[in-house]
């Protein structure tokens, strides 16, 4: 085949396309093509159809308009669905050898990859834009630190660029200058001789050499070493100086001893290592001994020793000192026997070692012995009321148990013993009573009467209880009456001193609280006196103040105190006394523990106290205008007369009733002043995170009245300063030490006019 | 016997000259000054009151134009010279110190759309409705000479704005597209376009001078890179942006004056969210210009007022208005950052102080110290309600005031509706959009 054939084939393929069109309309086609040169065309058609794949055959042929673009280079394969392959084109030239080179070239082309279609214009532009944008934003990011710096700057002075004073460098000044006068020449000669640089690098060659000789790091290390050595030396010197200054003889003695010991040790070592040197050392020591023996040192012959000898008769210490001296002498004059001495020393240390552990163990025993809780309760004196009551309570309870279990069976004799005990105690108390002050009579009377009332009540109760114990009724009653009679007489007497103590204390709210607690204790112990009168007498200190306390409570039970005082009293009434009796010790211990743990956690009481304080604080105060010494004698210890004080005391008017007067659990502060509120900041302003920060900024004054001139100027520097009449130019990269982004901002095309011209030339040529 | 004498160094109490102040020894122990805070408070209060008393910002009105003033330009080298273009094609050059017109040029037929000065201050450019760009000499013609432009470029379309490069002999015009011109050529070096709407303003970045920003009437702001001759990015806002202005101290910050009464400050690296939305105007904002310190900017609005905003605050610190000032079309902050000029519809250019109560002229050192102290006091006590109320008080014309009230009600209603919508729909289905994001429609790469 030749090229013509190829062309024919191409034409055929065109025809195929044309033929494809009417394929969808087989009926009409048959009709149309039936007549003229149908035979051949039909054959071709069949061939074409057979050459097509099964898939392609089904494909719908597209109707297309005649394309506007007619290209002479590309062969349109539109519609056929089959791409033109190079192999098809090459097939015909297989045989002809003249076209071998062409074939080779074509083969080479075949091996190369197909270049992808260029993107459409919009896409390309977008990519260009994105790249350009990312580049620009990168360029702009260099301004971030500067902008941040400017924002945080204490003060910005505009215009920003500093005008540097135009000082010409010395080289410029020197270039046009020559030494003329002899003096100048002389100086220059000198400079040149020393190779003193006149121009820029201001170092002589010598200096340079020295700089190069030692590297920076080496120099640093060297310097550090020197510094360290110097420091150590100074420390040592300081230490020596201090030691020298010490006046304590004991210290010096110890030092001397230490030195001697050290010398001895060294000698020992030397003996092992170098016997010859050791011998010399030994000689030295021997010599020293001889010297000592010759001298009268340490032989109680000195001035000091003589005085001590006189004192020794009376003073133990002096005697001891003398003995020490003699011992020393002996030691020094003794011949050196190294081995034995060391042994002795060891023995001594052993003894010491033995001694020490014993002591330590003892101490440890002491520490370990009792329970820490117990230990604490035993030792601590400054405990709360609860703990103070402990020791009282314990014997009471012990006695209580006795009374509960054994009162009925116990013989009368035992009770008589108890009676005796009681009497003894009574006498003791009377003695102590003498020491105490007497209370005002009136209060005594009231207390007496109230206490008697309570006592009578108690008696009635006890009788009721007694009736329960039917079997021992008579005996019990007989026992009961005796102490009752006794009690009736001594009780008031005893009550007085104890009441006195209490009355002194009951002043604060806490005291009242304690009283309340004690009261509840007392109620627990109520049944005891019913069974045994003497038992009740054992704890009279608690009892008699009960009525008084109750009375006070009645006065104080208003709305406010109700909260705190209520709970103990209620509990005391509600809890049955018998159960209380049966409480075993364990429970009590536990309660004790809890009480200890939560001691001082009375929230309600704290609140009430707080409220009372607030109320007190908000009350208007009286104004005292008395001038001491005005119109009368004044001075230390003299007070203005009562009349005067009355005259000049301005009573504060009663303010309006408090808003929280009838609200026991609320404190409504009345401090807020609406007139002042207009001048107060209500909400924390933005940059501040805590009100204290804000307050601090307000509290520091900035005026010159409170600050020195320098501080005032510093505090009042404005953030932005502009100079009048100066043009402020936009910030420049050169001003802040950056290089400006480019030589020129002109577009790329403009910057390379050469390229443009060449292109123009090309165009012209074309 | 040694007698102890009281001796003092005369340097401590003798004045050098009799003009010096007497030295007053003071004890600064804070225990001796228990009322320092109240005293400073009162001082601050007085300072604030005095500031309001002395707040008289209006300095002068320059009249002479026979139509509304459409554009203003500053002289780059001379503080006293200002150029203005009017709607009748007239350009006037003013001297601010003498407060009179130096020179009048009939530059164009129809509006003078834009005016800009060359960076060296020797000539200036104008564009007008007659499709021409003209370059003029700053100095007037000699006696008897005709007023003639140095160059005239006849374009195909109307130019709506012009800006000159900050360093090179290049300027940019806008209209159908952004054109970059060499001063020596009659054809643009390159023209950049993105979309097919008319561009109303173009501005060169004063720091990174190859950057350009423009705003078009299809609601977008486009940034261009002059070196690579491509647009960079485009942000589309709710409404049309009238002008943009670059911050002269922060390279990537610019502010756009929008038709929806707000101004938007953008970081050009992150256009999807404005750095700050400045809202106080009650009508379209027509022009904006930065203070040369970059800390504040001034905006001119159709609501017949100009406002000064701190860059980092969304509310204005100052509003200027007069009875006779109509819609303000252009505004400029002078390059010493002391004054503001605005040109308005009713043919006048007004000169204002940037700080309403600032004392003009040379201050003595004591005056300066007192000024600084008062300023610090005002800052220190600015959160106190009494002081705040006084400092914030401004008088507004009734129209603006009622507009503000009305818009407040509208805004509140919108907010309420939004809240209700969120409340009555499935949680998460109605997104909560912040005020900053609300106004940005899209960012196009």
UniProtKB/TrEMBL annotation, chain A:
Residues 407-434, 502-527, 545-554 have a biased composition (Basic and acidic residues). It is found in: Nucleus, Nucleolus. It holds the Pfam family Utp14. Residues 533-542 have a biased composition (Polar residues). One of its GO terms (cellular component) is small-subunit processome. Its main location: nucleus. InterPro entries: SSU_processome_Utp14 (IPR006709). Residues 14-43, 367-554, 734-766 are annotated as: Disordered. Keywords: Nucleus, Phosphoprotein, Ribonucleoprotein. The keyword Nucleus applies. GO terms for biological process: rRNA processing. Belongs to the UTP14 family. PANTHER family: U3 SMALL NUCLEOLAR RNA-ASSOCIATED PROTEIN 14 (PTHR14150), U3 SMALL NUCLEOLAR RNA-ASSOCIATED PROTEIN 14 HOMOLOG C (PTHR14150:SF16). This is UTP14, U3 small nucleolar ribonucleoprotein, homolog C. It comes from Pan troglodytes (Chimpanzee). The lineage of its organism: Eukaryota, Metazoa, Chordata, Craniata, Vertebrata.
From TrEMBL, chain B:
Pathway: Protein modification; protein ubiquitination. GO terms for cellular component: Cul4-RING E3 ubiquitin ligase complex; nucleolus; ribonucleoprotein complex. GO terms for molecular function: ubiquitin-like ligase-substrate adaptor activity. It comes from Pan troglodytes. WD repeats lie at residues 62-104, 278-319, 321-362. The keyword Cell inner membrane does not apply. This is DDB1- and CUL4-associated factor 13. Part of the small subunit (SSU) processome, first precursor of the small eukaryotic ribosomal subunit. During the assembly of the SSU processome in the nucleolus, many ribosome biogenesis factors, an RNA chaperone and ribosomal proteins associate with the nascent pre-rRNA and work in concert to generate RNA folding, modifications, rearrangements and cleavage as well as targeted degradation of pre-ribosomal RNA by the RNA exosome. Participates in the 18S rRNA processing in growing oocytes, being essential for oocyte nonsurrounded nucleolus (NSN) to surrounded nucleolus (SN) transition. It is found in: Nucleus, Nucleolus. Keywords: Nucleus, Repeat, Ribonucleoprotein, Ribosome biogenesis, rRNA processing, Ubl conjugation pathway, WD repeat. The keyword Nucleus applies. Belongs to the WD repeat DCAF13/WDSOF1 family. Residues 354-440 form the Sof1-like protein domain.
């Amino acid at each position: 085949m030749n090229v013509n054939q190829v062309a024919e084939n191409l034409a055929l393929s065109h025809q195929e396309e044309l033929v494809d069109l009417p394929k969808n309309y087989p009926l009409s086609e048959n009709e149309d093509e039936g007549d003229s040169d149908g035979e051949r065309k039909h054959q071709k058609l069949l061939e074409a159809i057979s050459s097509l794949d099964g898939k392609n055959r089904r494909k719908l042929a597209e109707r297309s308009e005649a394309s506007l673009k007619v290209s002479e280079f590309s062969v349109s394969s539109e519609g056929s669905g089959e791409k033109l392959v190079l192999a098809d084109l090459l097939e015909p030239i297989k045989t002809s050898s003249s076209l071998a080179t062409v074939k080779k070239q074509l083969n080479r082309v075949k091996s190369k990859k197909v270049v992808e279609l260029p993107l459409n214009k919009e896409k390309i532009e977008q990519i260009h834009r994105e790249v350009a944008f990312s580049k620009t934003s990168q360029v702009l990011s260099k301004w971030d630190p500067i902008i941040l710096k400017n924002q945080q700057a204490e003060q910005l002075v505009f215009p920003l660029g500093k005008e540097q004073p135009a000082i010409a460098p010395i080289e410029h000044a020197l270039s046009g200058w020559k030494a003329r006068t002899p003096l100048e020449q002389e100086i220059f000669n000198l400079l040149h001789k020393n190779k003193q640089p006149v121009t820029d690098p201001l170092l002589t060659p010598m200096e340079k050499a020295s700089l190069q000789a030692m590297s920076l790091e080496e120099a640093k290390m060297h310097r550090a070493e020197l510094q360290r050595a110097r420091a150590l030396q100074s420390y040592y010197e300081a230490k020596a100086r201090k030691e020298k200054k010490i006046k304590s003889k004991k210290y010096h003695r110890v030092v001397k001893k230490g030195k001697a010991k050290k010398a001895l040790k060294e000698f020992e070592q030397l003996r092992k290592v170098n016997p010859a040197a050791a011998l010399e050392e030994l000689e030295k020591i021997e010599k020293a001994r001889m010297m000592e023996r010759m001298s009268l040192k340490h032989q109680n012959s000195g001035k000091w020793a003589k005085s001590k000898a006189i004192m020794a008769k009376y003073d133990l210490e002096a005697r001891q000192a003398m003995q020490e001296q003699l011992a020393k002498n002996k030691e020094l004059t003794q011949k050196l026997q190294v081995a034995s001495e060391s042994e002795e020393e060891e023995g001594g240390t052993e003894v010491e070692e033995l001694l020490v552990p014993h002591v330590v163990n003892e101490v440890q025993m002491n520490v370990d012995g009792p329970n820490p809780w117990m230990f604490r309760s035993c030792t601590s004196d400054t405990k709360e009321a609860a703990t103070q009551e402990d020791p009282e309570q314990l014997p009471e309870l012990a006695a209580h148990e006795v009374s509960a279990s054994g009162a009925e069976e116990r013989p009368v004799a035992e009770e008589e013993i108890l009676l005796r005990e009681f009497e003894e105690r009574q006498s003791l108390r009377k003695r102590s009573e003498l020491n105490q002050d007497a209370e005002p009579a009136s209060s005594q009377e009231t207390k007496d009467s109230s206490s008697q009332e309570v006592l009578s009540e108690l008696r009635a109760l006890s009788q009721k209880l007694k009736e329960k114990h039917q079997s021992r009724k008579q005996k019990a009653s007989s026992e009961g009456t005796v102490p009752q009679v006794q009690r009736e007489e001594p009780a008031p007497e005893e009550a007085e001193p104890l009441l006195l103590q209490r009355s002194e204390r009951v002043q604060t709210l806490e005291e009242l609280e304690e009283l309340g607690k004690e009261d509840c204790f007392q109620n627990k112990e109520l049944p005891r006196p019913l069974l045994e009168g003497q038992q009740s007498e054992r704890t009279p200190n608690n009892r008699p103040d009960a009525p008084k306390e109750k009375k006070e409570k009645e006065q104080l039970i208003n709305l406010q105190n109700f909260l705190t005082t209520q709970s103990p009293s209620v509990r005391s009434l509600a809890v049955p006394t018998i159960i209380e009796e049966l409480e075993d010790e364990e429970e009590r211990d536990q309660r004790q523990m809890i009480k200890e743990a939560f001691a001082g956690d009375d929230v309600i009481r704290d609140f009430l106290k707080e409220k009372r304080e607030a109320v007190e604080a908000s009350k208007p105060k009286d104004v005292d205008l008395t001038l001491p010494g005005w119109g009368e004698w004044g001075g230390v210890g003299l007070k203005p007369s009562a009349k005067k004080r009355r005259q000049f005391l301005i009573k504060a008017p009663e303010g309006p009733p408090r808003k929280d007067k009838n609200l026991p659990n609320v404190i409504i502060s009345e401090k807020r002043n609406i007139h002042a509120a207009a001048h107060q900041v209500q909400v924390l302003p933005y940059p501040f995170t805590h009100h204290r920060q804000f307050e601090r900024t307000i509290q520091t004054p900035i005026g010159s009245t409170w600050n020195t001139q320098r501080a005032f100027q510093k505090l009042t520097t404005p953030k932005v300063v502009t100079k009048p009449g100066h043009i402020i130019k936009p910030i420049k990269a050169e001003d802040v030490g950056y290089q400006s982004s480019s030589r020129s901002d002109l577009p790329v095309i403009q910057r390379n006019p050469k390229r443009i011209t060449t292109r123009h030339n090309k165009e012209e040529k074309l | 016997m040694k007698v102890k004498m009281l001796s003092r160094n005369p340097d401590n109490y003798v004045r050098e000259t009799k003009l010096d102040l007497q030295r007053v020894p003071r004890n600064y122990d804070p225990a001796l000054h228990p009322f320092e805070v109240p005293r400073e408070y009162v001082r601050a209060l007085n300072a604030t009151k005095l500031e309001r008393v002395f707040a008289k910002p209006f300095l002068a009105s320059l009249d002479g134009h026979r139509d509304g003033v459409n554009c203003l330009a500053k002289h780059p080298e001379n503080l006293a010279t200002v150029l203005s273009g009017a709607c009748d094609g007239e350009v006037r050059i003013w001297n601010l110190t003498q407060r009179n017109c130096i020179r009048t040029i009939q530059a164009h037929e129809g509006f003078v759309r834009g005016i800009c000065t060359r960076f060296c201050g020797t000539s200036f450019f104008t564009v007008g409705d007659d499709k021409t760009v003209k370059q003029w000499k700053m100095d007037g013609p000699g006696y008897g000479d005709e007023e003639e432009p140095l160059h005239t470029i006849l374009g195909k379309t109307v130019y709506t704005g012009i800006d000159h490069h900050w360093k090179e002999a290049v300027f940019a015009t806008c209209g159908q597209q952004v054109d970059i011109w060499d001063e020596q050529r009659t054809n643009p070096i390159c023209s950049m376009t993105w979309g097919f709407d008319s561009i109303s303003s173009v501005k060169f970045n004063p720091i990174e001078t190859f950057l350009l920003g423009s705003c078009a009437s299809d609601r977008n702001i486009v940034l261009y890179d002059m070196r690579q001759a491509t647009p960079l990015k485009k942000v589309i806002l709710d409404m049309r942006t009238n002008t943009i202005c670059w911050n002269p101290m922060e390279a990537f910050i610019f502010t756009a004056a929008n038709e929806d009464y707000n101004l938007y400050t953008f970081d050009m690296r992150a256009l999807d969210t404005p750095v700050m939305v400045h809202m106080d105007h009650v009508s379209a904002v027509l022009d904006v210009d930065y203070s040369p310190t970059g800390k504040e900017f001034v905006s001119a609005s159709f609501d017949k007022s100009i406002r000064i905003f701190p860059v980092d605050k969304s509310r204005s610190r100052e509003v200027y208005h007069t009875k006779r000032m109509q819609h303000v079309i252009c505004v400029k902050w002078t390059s010493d950052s002391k004054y503001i000029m605005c040109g308005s519809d009713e043919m006048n250019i007004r000169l204002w102080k940037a700080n309403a109560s600032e004392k003009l002229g040379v201050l003595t050192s004591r005056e300066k110290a007192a000024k600084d102290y008062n300023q610090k006091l005002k800052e220190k006590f600015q959160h106190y309600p009494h002081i705040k109320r006084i400092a914030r008080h401004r008088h507004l014309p009734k129209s603006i005031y009622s507009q503000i009230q009305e818009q407040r009600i509208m805004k509140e209603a919108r907010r309420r509706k939004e809240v209700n919508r969120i409340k009555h729909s499935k949680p998460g289905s109605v997104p909560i959009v912040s005020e900053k994001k609300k106004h940005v429609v899209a960012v196009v790469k």
